[in-house]
Design brief:
By secondary structure, the chain is α+β, with helices and mostly antiparallel strands. The protein has a single domain, classed as FAD/NAD(P)-binding domain (3-Layer(bba) Sandwich), CATH 3.50.50. The chain is 16% helix and 31% strand. The protein is built from six helices and 18 strands. Strands 3, 6, 12, 13, 14, 15, 16 and 17 form an eight-stranded mixed beta sheet that branches. Strands 1, 2, 9, 10, 11 and 18 form a six-stranded mixed beta sheet that branches. Strands 4, 5, 7 and 8 form a four-stranded antiparallel beta sheet that branches. A hairpin with a 2-residue loop joins strand 14 and strand 15. Helix 1 packs parallel to helix 6. The protein is globular. The chain starts with a strand and ends with a helix. The protein binds flavin-adenine dinucleotide. Flavin-adenine dinucleotide binds next to helix 1 and helix 6.
């Protein structure tokens, strides 16, 4: 029997793995081959991967994502983190793994922000890709779990894998978590599932990349055109210099919106059609109004969710700080 398991291979799994002091095993697939899926989020320059979700989202206006690959979204992300909102010890701890916190600047990262405390996580001069720092113990896609005495059995119905653990961290991303909770009978037909995000839009700015509206209460991340294109296509190395004074602003407003779905036979059916998901930082998964960790703790006190699903983001902008803090608080 293994004592502690981390299920997942993205930034959340990385945050837990480097925060907890005890020996642990990591269970996650190296890659799920690309196919056709409404949840796929590949970029031109990133390694294509797919998703094995059976969930179906019945909406044209809501966008949700899933990436089943070691590294998860950290293979295509911006690496942005709000260091003022991050536990200093959790940040300091990452240094031991070669992770650097780089201040934003047009010459340094190709980006700036109205919040000076927003930085970029890098390693070896590139945006942090956590696949370089995770050691997989079982190349398994976990789709269910159940109690066996006081232990938790993690299961894959595809491979037949099953193993007992004393403590489990589920770090699989929101949609995969919903599917696991359905299989574990914690989400049932006609349950209401909700998610939140800070509203998000893109706009253009002409002039100095360092001048922002000081009264704006949201978060702006500004990219040079070359960096914006690199971000769009998933190119994570240093890029050519921006020469034009035209900048792309990624704006996370201070206004939160919520989306509610009815779950029914593998389908997520929105109660109201809204634009949602554009921020890719949607969080705070609730089932019938109950936060996901509270739902789990009732029956599975040794199962912990780490990731956007378990975070109630208080301030708009990067969410990696909330994830890292959560992992650190569970150590
Ligand atoms: C394009 C893009 C850019 C982003 N940029 C930023 C940014 O700059 N800053 C920021 O704070 N946030 C950013 N985000 C949000 C970002 O996704 C999160 O901050 C962070 O990457 C979430 O990590 P995660 O490990 O929880 O999820 P994921 O990155 O989705 O990783 C989930 C992992 O679990 C594995 N997995 C999935 N299902 C199973 C299963 N059933 N069994 C076993 N393993 C499984 C997957 O293969 C994957 O490795 C961005 C998101 C996107 C899509």
């Amino acid at each position: 029997m293994g004592k502690t398991a981390i299920v997942g291979g993205g930034f959340s799994a990385f945050s837990v793995s480097k925060s907890i002091d005890c020996a642990h095993e990591i269970l996650t697939p190296y890659i799920c081959p690309a196919g056709v899926s409404q949840f796929q989020s590949n970029k031109l320059m990133s390694r294509n991967c797919g998703t094995n979700l059976t969930l179906c989202l019945e909406s044209q206006r809501i966008r949700l994502h899933d990436r089943v690959i070691l590294g998860g979204n950290s293979k295509i992300w911006g690496g942005f983190i709000d260091v003022e909102l991050t536990h200093p010890m959790a940040l300091e701890n990452l240094k031991a793994y070669g992770v650097e916190v780089i201040k934003l600047g047009i010459d340094e990262t190709g980006s700036t922000s109205n919040r000076v405390q927003i930085c970029q996580l890098q390693r070896n001069g590139r945006i942090l890709d956590v696949s370089e720092l995770l050691r997989v113990d079982f190349d398994e896609h976990i789709d269910n779990f159940y109690l066996s005495g006081s232990n938790i059995v993690l299961k894959s119905s595809v491979s037949g894998f099953a193993k007992k653990y004393e403590k489990v961290y589920l770090c699989v991303g929101i949609l995969q978590l919903i599917e696991i909770l359905v299989n574990a009978k914690l989400i049932l037909d006609e349950d209401v599932i909700s998610l939140e995000e800070f509203e998000h839009k893109l706009s253009f700015h002409l002039g100095s990349p360092y001048i922002f509206d000081l009264n704006y209460d949201g978060c702006v991340i500004r990219y040079g055109l070359a960096r914006a294109v690199s971000h769009y296509i998933g190119y994570q190395k240093r890029m050519i210099k921006d020469l034009m004074p035209l900048w792309v602003d990624q704006v996370f407003s201070g206004v939160k919106s919520t989306v509610n779905f009815i779950y029914n036979h593998g389908r997520l059916i929105p109660i109201e059609e809204v634009n949602f998901g554009g921020s890719v930082h949607y969080c705070n998964l609730k089932v019938n109004g109950v936060r996901v960790q509270d739902l789990l703790s009732l029956k599975f006190p040794n199962v912990f969710v780490v990731g956007m699903a378990a975070v109630d983001q208080a301030i708009s902008g990067p969410i990696s700080n909330d994830i890292l803090n959560l992992a650190w608080s569970l150590k």
